[in-house]
């Protein structure tokens, strides 16, 4: 018996280390969106609040019934067997593939086929797990490979990607990466049980020096090679905001880490760090203020459009 709540997403848009928050930020307000693997409609609900119209594709009938509340329509069935072009009869500004391609037998064919449904300036948003995360590598070194209900070794995963193969996969699909990010989790912060204190010191050092060791998911915004979306990419204010917040968090973590390593900072060192932090904060505040002003302007524009539609609608 299927569990329709298995992939329910509890989305916190304040969390910059989350694939669904990344996806919402990658969708312009008012877009027509196709959500492949819509689950219970968690993402569609938020996009609807942004003035988007969302169509879904979902394998599980019960989950599809839940998603229907937030979608214009939900196509129920196996994405590898469906004729989406015939079933939907429209093009989309954004197509979402969130934690779905790794479950397919032939994800490349599905992804290539979906590109025919994109508008001229449309793009896809993709999240994929990293099979080379440090926790999984540590598990293999201990002689185990254990599937789990969800996560990196979800027992329904059929395809696996590492930092090199994931980029080759996108190139093979005819896509150009416009923006990318990572969901990062420490080696002892995933669903895979790892005893960090039992790691060989050489292995632990290797993980520490590998910039992708904590990459739990790969996140991409990509568009077909040669498309208008590649030559003239859309400006996505929410993604800029996420990057700024992410940079600020990493900066704070770095300062905290340095403080932990070197408790005895000199007065000059402390003064220099505080001055750098103040300058960074001023720059970020200016950038965030500009983004907020731009987003307010966009909201007013959407309100004006909605009012014009209401005025022109028959009573």
Word description of this protein:
With 315 residues, this protein is α/β, with parallel strands linked by helices. The protein folds into two domains: 19-230, 3-Layer(aba) Sandwich (Rossmann fold), CATH 3.40.50.150; 247-312. 43% of the residues lie in helices and 17% in strands. It is built from eleven helices and seven strands. The chain has helices at residues 19-25, 42-49, 61-67, 84-88, 107-114, 134-141, 163-172, 201-209, 228-231, 237-261, 267-312; strands at residues 32-36, 53-58, 73-76, 92-98, 118-129, 175-184, 215-224. It has a seven-stranded mixed β-sheet with strand order 3-2-1-4-5-7-6, sandwiched between helices. Helix 3 (61-67) links the parallel strand 2 (53-58) and strand 3. The longest helix has 46 residues, at 267-312. The radius of gyration is 22 Å and the shape is globular. It starts with 18 loop residues before the first helix and ends with a helix. The mean pLDDT is 86.
How many separate structural domains?
2
Trace the largest sheet across and list its strands.
Answer: 3-2-1-4-5-7-6
**Helical segment tally?**
11
Rounded to the nearest angstrom, the distance between the terminal CA atoms is: 47 Å
- The amount of beta strand, in percent, is 15-25%
What's the story with the biggest beta sheet? 7 strands, mixed
**Strands, total number:** 7
Mean pLDDT: 86
Q: Per CATH, which architecture of the largest domain?
A: 3-Layer(aba) Sandwich
> Regarding CATH, which class of the largest domain?
Alpha Beta
Helices and strands, in order, run as: HEHEHEHEHEHHEHEHHH
Structural class: alpha/beta
Quaternary organisation of the protein chains: single chain
How would you describe the shape?
Answer: globular
CATH superfamily of the largest domain: Vaccinia Virus protein VP39
Helix content: 40-55%
What fold name stands as the CATH topology of the largest domain? Rossmann fold
Spans of at least 5 consecutive residues with low confidence: none
């Amino acid at each position: 018996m299927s569990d329709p709540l298995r992939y329910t997403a509890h989305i916190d848009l304040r969390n910059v280390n989350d694939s669904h928050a990344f996806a919402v930020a990658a969708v312009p307000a008012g877009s027509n969106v196709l959500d492949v693997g819509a689950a219970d409609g968690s993402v569609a609900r938020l996009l609807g609040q942004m003035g988007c119209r969302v169509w879904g594709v979902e394998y599980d009938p019960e989950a599809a019934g839940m998603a229907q509340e937030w979608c214009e329509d939900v196509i129920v069935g196996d994405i590898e067997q469906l004729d989406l072009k015939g079933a939907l009869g429209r093009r989309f500004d954004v197509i979402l593939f969130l934690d779905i391609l790794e479950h397919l037998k032939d994800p490349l064919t599905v992804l290539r086929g979906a590109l025919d449904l994109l508008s001229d300036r449309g793009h896809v948003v993709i999240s994929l797990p990293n099979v080379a995360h440090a926790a999984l590598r540590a598990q293999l070194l201990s002689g185990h490979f254990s599937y789990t209900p969800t996560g990196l070794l979800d027992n329904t995963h059929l395809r696996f990607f590492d930092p090199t193969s994931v980029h080759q996969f996108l190139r093979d699909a005819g896509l150009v990466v416009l923006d990318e990010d990572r969901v990062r989790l420490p080696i002892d912060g995933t669903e895979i049980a790892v005893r960090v204190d039992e790691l060989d010191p050489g292995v632990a050092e290797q993980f520490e020096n590998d910039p992708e060791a904590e990459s739990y998911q790969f996140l991409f915004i990509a568009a077909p090679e040669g498309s208008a979306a590649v030559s003239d990419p859309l400006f996505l204010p929410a993604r800029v905001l996420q990057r700024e917040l992410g940079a600020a968090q990493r900066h704070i973590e770095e300062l905290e880490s340095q403080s932990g390593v070197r408790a005895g900072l000199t007065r000059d060192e402390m003064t220099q760090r505080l001055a750098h932090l103040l300058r960074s904060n001023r720059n970020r505040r200016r950038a965030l203020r500009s983004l907020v002003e731009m987003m307010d302007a966009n909201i007013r524009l959407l309100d004006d459009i909605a009012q014009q539609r209401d005025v022109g609608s028959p009573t």
